[in-house]
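Complex record, three chains
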Amino acid sequence: MTQPNRLDDGGVLIDRSHKIKFFFDGKPYNGHPGDTLASALLANGVKLVNRSYKYHRPRGIVSSGPEEPNALVNLGSDATHEPNIRMTQIELHDGLDATSQNRFPNLDADIGVLNAAASRLYPAGFYYKTFIHPRHAWKYLFEPVIRRIAGLGKAPTHPDNSQYEHTYAFCDVLIAGGGVAGLVAAKAASEAGARVILAEQTERLGGRLLVDDDAEIDGKPARVWLEETIAALEAMDNVTIRLRTCCSAAYDHNYCLLYERSGDRGEAAQVRHRLWRVRTARVIAATGMIERPIAFHYNDVPGVMLASAVRDYVKLWGVSPGEKTVVYTTNDDGYRTALALHEAGRTVRAILDSRKDPSGPLVEKARAAGLEIRPNTGIGKAKAKRNKLEQIETVNFDKPEAPGKTMYCDCVAMSNGWSPVIHLYSHSGGKALWDEDAVMYRPDPANPPRGKDAEAMVFVAGSANGELTTDAVVAQAAEIASEALSQLGMKTSAVAPSVTAVTETTTVPVWCTPSPGKAGLGGKHFLDYQNDVTVADVALAAREGYESVEHAKRYTTLGMATDQGKLSNINGHAILGKTLGKTMAEVGTTTFRPPFTPISFGSIAGRETGNLFKPVRQTAMHDWHAAHGADWEPVGDWRRPYRYQRGDEDRDTSIHRECLRVRNSVGILDASTLGKIIVKGPDAPKFLDMMYTNMMSSLKPGKCRYGLMNNENGFLMDDGVVVRLDEETFLCHTTSGGADRIHAWFEEWLQTEWFDFKVYVANVTEQYSQIAVAGPKGLELLGSLDSDIDFAAVPFMGMAEGTVEGCPVRAFRISFTGELSYEFAVPVSFGLALWEKLHAKAEALGGGVYGTEAQHILRAEKGFVVIGDETDGTVTAHDVGMSWAVSKKKEDFIGKRAMERSDLTRPDRKQLVGLLTEDPNEVLPDGAHGVENGKAIGHVTSTYFSPTLKRSIAMALINGGRARFGEVIQISTAKKKTIRAVICDPVFYDKKGERQDV
Amino acid sequence: MSELDLSLARPILEGVSDTGANGLKLFVQLLRGMVTLRADLSSPSVAAAVKDVTGSDMPDVRKATENVLWMSTDELLLLMPYGEGGAVAAKLGEALAGEHHLAVDVSDARSLFKLEGGAAREVLAKGAPVDLARDKFAVGDLRRTRISHIAAAFWQSGAEPDVFEIICFRSYANYLWEWLEESSREGSMPGIL
Amino acid sequence: MLLIDCPCCGVSGEETEFAAGGEAHIVRAGPGSSDADFASYLFDRKNPRGVHFERWRHAFGCGKWFHMVRSTQTLEVFGVYKADVTSPPQDILDRVEAARAEGRVK
């Protein structure tokens, strides 16, 4: 396997002594360590690497960096598969396996190319214009078909087996970019004593200095200065240099994201990608520039490349993308590419220069080398043969209608000047200014992104600030670094290096090259390769009234592909301006949004997958429940046993057994998740009177009282039993989901409204396991315990403290099942021991455990409400028939004023009632609506089959329901059926409450 | 008559994990007595009561002594052997009678982890938004923050610079344990701290 | 993501450690208040493009509520102060005025 386009010499990055075997579309190729996938494929003469998104046109590699619009591949397979990776950023490694995208059945013969034949039917805004009618066709016809055709890479089908990491990091100065400007800034910052992180997206430091080494720095060849500077920085303790790490974003208050691709090189990496969350005092963006392409007729055929990229391939990787190259430039820098190719022994067919009278040292050097220079000339047309460039036709800018000269070539190197990479300046609101002389957007120094003290957060250094020559880059980088440092109160001892560089004249850009011949602008002049947006599309959008740059972008999709228009935006805006007769400054630019280049989903997820995706809270008895067949019910972050399954019995069998065990013998329930909050202080009674609707100050020590809590809107937000432990101390129980919320709610009122109250609060939810023992045989069970508590002497709503089976407990005689019931609070460490004891005793009496679903049925049989089932944030205590718990004596409590509003006192509000279906075996669907005269009159809030009553029961909120007991209403179900049910009292069982208060 | 049997008390998880990375070791500390004290921390009688039950001076803001953690402007967490929390809370109650305060035994509410080794800082930095550079977070420093999704606090109480004690609410102990183990994997450190 | 200084424990922490609590210095209207005053207490909230007085809680830290004055437009922070006051301190108001005079905020 030879590499036909590999040059005999050169390539500072590659190690020619080793060969690497890799695969593209299943075919094996050779490359060298140091190659990118792009350089290796070009070395092997592979020109066609992709098909375009819309027209399926053949496409090749255009660039050598992150701006690459065309050369996207699927990388890896199965558990390592990753789509849409830019070949120009993939480091070659042994066994690398890449496949091309967006083609069927293969790259050379792709049937989607039929789209191109029909391209006249796809103008700008095609989708908006076409798929509007009929409306439902979008969902069933258009979208499925378009989805199959559209899209870039393949979505992964296997779980990703790679490791991803996050880390927080902090520094004084974050430098984005390890080119000459970044290195000068890093040197300055490190010598000022700043904590520095330098992030470089490639695997190398030096940036363009590795390619364009025609300058002298500090009297030394650029390469020597570079090596010395890197060595000096690496020796500094306060400098962290991260290669393969892109500064993706600079957010508010200088929160920056670094995306590190540390494990993308084939070996079994411990960490594939790492996302750094960096908080830095200042950012220095030394992010360089991106070269602009030139629009001409079929400027997208494989072989048409950026001039700087062609030069990169020659100098960095020893690859000449073509045998014969035509250079098409609008500036001096393009000549460097011609010279590089010439020096590498390849043919430069001609240098076409749009300028009338090119001059300067680089031009002279090319002339002296005998290269043909054609001023005032561009490429009017490119022509492909077998999916690659075969020839171009020149055009004279003064006489575009005249036929041009045909030149056979397999590579075009185009240069239309440069655009500074000002993304990081722009992400958090920094503004850009159009510089008419330099023909580029530069950061506006008067409008930087500002931090929390209104300080400028991001400083732009070197060519990212628009500096074109090495001397200007170095001088500006040193100056801006010292400005950033002085803002931090730091002073650098570093002296700016002196530089001798080649002088250059500025670009005279060509936004669209006229085609030779009559048509003038015929054919497709591509602006955005990835989204197939042409000059004609943008011009059409402007004519159709999409004059704002933001509208034109969305209408044409210019710059909306994964490359975010790194090559296309400026050219597109220029076309928009030309069509509208506006200047670039008047057109304005679209907003740069993070990330700079796409980052992997894996890096966003980090370690937080699987069990770590979301925390699960476990009680002390969690493993016991699991070992005894528990199904889990999520309650907040908790998992509670919903029921305990025996063998392969069905759901209802277990639940009904658990219900009947409580009604007939004795059951135990893990109620540990209930919130428990200690409220203490001389003002605690007064405070709780404000927080609850009922009176708590009158509660006697040692007694329990059920309480309701409102929000200020007068609606129920939580409930639970309050225990007065002593004069100053209360223990407030909350719902399981409400513990943290109610604790925070108490603190909020105490800290922000009644900060004069002497009350301290502590959330002790996690201190206690709570176990309910309920059922007619409860006392018998308790009597058999080794305990110093006389349970029979504890009255209903009373409490006792003591020791049970060696465990320290508080016992509350409260009931949420309607049966005789005690709840034990025991320190969590003793929870399992006490649970196991109680379980053994319960089983001995023919009882056992019950889960949350049985608990829900038991309480529904008694008509007890559950916050969140019977309430939904619009329900008052009166609505659920609990006016008895709303104090009339208290002058004030949270929600009292609201409950006086007319809407909350209407007699026809929804009220809690019971519902009994006419067919006792029919269970109403949860949430089903009561319907009368075609109108909804309320809804079902809880619905069960009651094993105790051997029939279905339901609770519902029905308009004016309490006055309608005995009436039959229709309940509408999702299946368009109605079920008849009788409105009744919501207490279905033991209406007098005799069972709980024996 | 039933006697209190401390041997029945069990931590929610037990174990030591030697993750191998940079000599990292992760322990779940067995049960530890803890008392939350909320009071006016500037009051001399509060300082005296704390000194009396712990032997320790009042810690400064966001500092930890060997057995007293500064949790908030009016809150401390006192550490003692398991089983003594109730008695300590009662003793504080007596000493501060007549002074507004809250002392409550919370010995079972939290799980305590110990992470030691050169990479301990980097493990924590993976999930806590805290500057853990050696000169920014040193012996005696304490920070309440979040680790990954959950509330936690960590401090350096001993003389060793790379030993961290970490607490979280007990129901989250399994989550934090697994998170710490995963984050301690060999070869996964960024290598910056 | 905001960087927030807690005036209670002195931490300078990232926004994820904190919980936003809406507009500051709302006066509670209880029983006896007029319908208009009560409705305003419940529902009227400022949503300025510019300087905003807000409540925050150091939820993952010391647990304390406090106030922060910031520009919703530029995210400039003019100061933080404790919760147990009913109006902002003068030095923060002065800073806001200075920023207005310099045209940084409305």
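Note: Chain A touches chain B through 61 residues (CB under 8 Å).
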